[in-house]
Design a protein that fits this description.
This protein has 600 residues and is mainly beta. It folds into six domains: 2-77, no CATH class; 80-165, Immunoglobulins (Immunoglobulin-like, Sandwich); 171-258, Immunoglobulins (Immunoglobulin-like, Sandwich), CATH 2.60.40; 264-361, Immunoglobulin-like (Sandwich), CATH 2.60.40; 459-542, Immunoglobulins (Immunoglobulin-like, Sandwich), CATH 2.60.40; 548-599. It is built from three helices and 47 strands. The strands form 13 sheets. Strands 22, 24, 25, 27, 28 and 29 form a six-stranded mixed beta sheet that branches. Strands 4, 6, 8, 9 and 10 form a five-stranded mixed beta sheet that branches. A hairpin with a 5-residue loop joins strand 37 (436-441) and strand 38 (447-456). The longest helix is centred in the last third of the chain and has 35 residues, at 544-578.
Length: 600
């Protein structure tokens, strides 16, 4: 009976085990075959339905449980895997990268891992932590880990994209320039062309006699050196650092510091002597420098009361190493002495004022005239010269000023007279240092009627007009020899702008019957012994303005005078008729009738 009971119990256990075996076998088969289960699984309870209810082998009795019976079923979330990267998913060649396959969810202790790159079938690591040392660009790719607990289905992580860039090399830029002057401020900038990382730190070095020294005060992207001196003339490099990885060292930038102040040079094109309406360009250049300058132009006035110069700003503009200031249509008011200056940097660095250049504008100035005696532009040394400012508007305050030896000066008169509206300066004995430009200047600083006076120590001068010649008028030039009594017997050659204009075989004059604008230029002459005079600028003035002015004056005069002429004629005519003799009453009546008819 016991045997039957035992057999009955054994048969019952086998029956139950047979009923559960497919599920248990399926569980194992799924693990081995890597079949993915759902996120949530039902785990069969291994707890006996009744305490001590075991079979003869000691295994617990398996009972078929319905998933709907929550009291007998344990349900759990499957753990998930997450790949993390340190220090970043964008790194640079040479860095070390750590990939971690993290398990989210508790209750697991023994996991096996596999790492795959770009869906490769080959396992690249079996560890939870995958380390790549001295990473390079070939390590760029998508990384995934797969993990599973012993006898459990495996899990697949998210995919992480790792980007490896080549080691970067910074570039150093300089503001304002590599060529610097003592006292300037220079800014060095270390630029790294990357994909947008902002965690860079920087270091700067300076190379001195084959030694590279770190500049401790420069630890940012920009390195500023104030009040730079000659000993700062060295090679400068920079390097960037992100996390623990350094970039390559930049190429060296050499700073050259001059111990002298920069020199600015002012030039004029096409020439200094101009006629109203001409165009002129002033060019300001900084020698031995290339960029970053802003230029300003000034007109120079001399304050005679305090004996110093006043620089009045005319214009400014930006440029590289050369600034350009152009006046398209000059007028008499543009006459004067000009200078320029350049600035750059922050704080602003100023050059010294440049050399001076003059602009002499000739035109019609009827109000004030400068009278020269003798009336020519070239003079022999030791001669006497008289210059007078005559004001036709009966105003006072005009005096003779001059620009000689690159300086503004009063007229050095040994006999200075001022009578009414005329002031005269007389130089008893001319010297070559008296060569320059003379003009009339008002008390307010206005400049009118500039003329060029040249004093020649040699024996040959050119007798040419001081004032501009009007188009259509004749021009007479004469070559004079010092102490020569018969100038008409002198043979001379006249030149214009370096080319022969006329060979004089007899006589001493060259006459241009009708002057045009093309005759404007520099003239000089040579005597038979090839001795040359100085050059004189002959300006040609257009007649259009004068003709228009004359026509306007005539028209204005007629408008003003005609009413008076008409009124006077009518009055004379009436007086004449009233003085006709009245011989009889009939005649008077007839005269009255005729007058009435005439009025009708």
């Amino acid at each position: 009976m016991d045997n039957r009971g035992s057999k009955k119990k054994k048969g019952g256990a086998e029956k139950i085990r047979e009923k559960k075996s497919p599920s248990f076998s399926l569980f194992f088969t799924g693990l081995i075959s890597n079949i993915l289960f759902k996120e949530t699984e039902a785990w069969y309870s291994t707890t006996p339905t009744h305490p001590g209810n075991t079979n003869h082998t000691g295994w617990p009795s398996w009972t078929t449980l319905s998933p709907n019976i929550s009291s007998e079923l344990t349900t759990a979330e499957r753990p998930t895997l997450n790949v993390s990267v340190w220090p970043d998913d964008h790194v640079y060649s040479g860095e070390t990268v750590y990939l971690t396959c993290g398990v989210n969810g508790g209750g697991v202790y023994s996991w096996q891992y596999s790492w795959y790159k770009d869906s490769s079938l080959y396992n690249i690591s079996d560890l939870q932590y995958y380390t790549i040392r001295f990473i390079n660009e070939s390590d760029t790719g998508n990384y995934t880990c797969i993990g599973s607990e012993t006898y459990r289905p495996h899990n697949i992580s998210n995919t992480v994209t790792l980007t490896v860039s080549e080691s970067l090399k910074p570039v150093v830029s300089v503001d304002p320039d590599k060529q610097l002057f003592r006292g300037e401020t220079v800014t060095l900038r270390c630029d790294i062309q990357d994909t947008g990382d902002t965690e860079w730190t920087y270091s700067w070095t300076v190379e001195k006699t084959n030694n590279r020294n770190i500049i401790p005060q420069c630890n940012t992207q920009e390195c500023k050196i104030n009040n730079i001196q000659y000993h700062h003339s060295d090679k400068y490099t920079c390097r960037g650092k992100i996390r623990e990885q350094n970039t390559e060292m930049s190429d060296a930038v050499t700073l050259t510091v001059s111990s002298d102040k920069p020199q600015t040079v002012l030039s004029v094109s096409p020439q200094q002597w101009l006629t109203e309406g001409d165009s002129v360009t002033l060019m300001c250049e900084v020698i031995s420098s290339s960029s970053g300058w802003t230029f300003s132009w000034f007109i120079v006035k001399r304050l005679y009361s305090v004996n110093k110069y006043d620089y009045q700003l005319v214009s400014d503009s930006s440029g590289g190493s050369k600034g350009i200031f152009t006046v398209n249509s000059v007028t008499v008011k543009h006459t004067g002495v000009y200078s320029c200056r350049a600035t750059r940097g922050d704080p602003v660095y100023y050059t010294d004022y440049s050399n001076t250049q003059t602009l002499w504008i000739t035109g019609v100035s009827p109000s004030v005239s400068l009278i020269i005696r003798p009336n020519r532009s070239q003079h022999f040394s030791s001669e006497s010269l008289s210059l007078s400012c005559e004001d036709h508007n009966n105003s006072t305050g005009w005096t003779v000023r001059r620009y000689t030896e690159d300086k503004l000066k009063p007229c050095p008169s040994s006999d200075w007279r001022s009578t009414g509206t005329t002031s005269t300066c007389t130089i008893r004995s001319l010297n070559t240092s008296d060569t320059g430009v003379y003009w009339c200047q008002s008390e307010s600083g206005e400049i009118l009627h500039p003329v060029n006076i040249s004093v020649h120590y040699d024996d040959v001068i050119l007798d040419s007009p001081v004032d501009p010649v009007t188009e259509g008028d004749p021009l007479t030039l004469r070559c004079l020899l010092y102490g020569y009594k018969n100038p008409s017997d002198l043979r001379a050659t006249v030149y214009k702008d370096g080319s022969v204009v006329q060979h004089q075989t007899t006589g001493d004059m060259m006459i241009i019957p009708t002057v045009s604008k093309s005759h404007e230029g520099f003239y000089y002459c040579k005597d038979p012994w090839r001795r040359a005079s100085l050059k004189s600028w002959i300006s040609v003035r257009g007649e259009t303005a004068q003709v228009k002015m004359s026509g306007l004056k005539i028209f204005t005069f007629l408008l003003a005078v005609c009413p008076y002429l008409i009124a006077t004629a009518m009055l004379v005519f009436k007086c004449y008729r009233l003085r006709v003799p009245h011989s009889s009453v009939e005649d008077q009546l007839q005269y009255a009738v005729r007058e009435d008819e005439t009025s009708i």
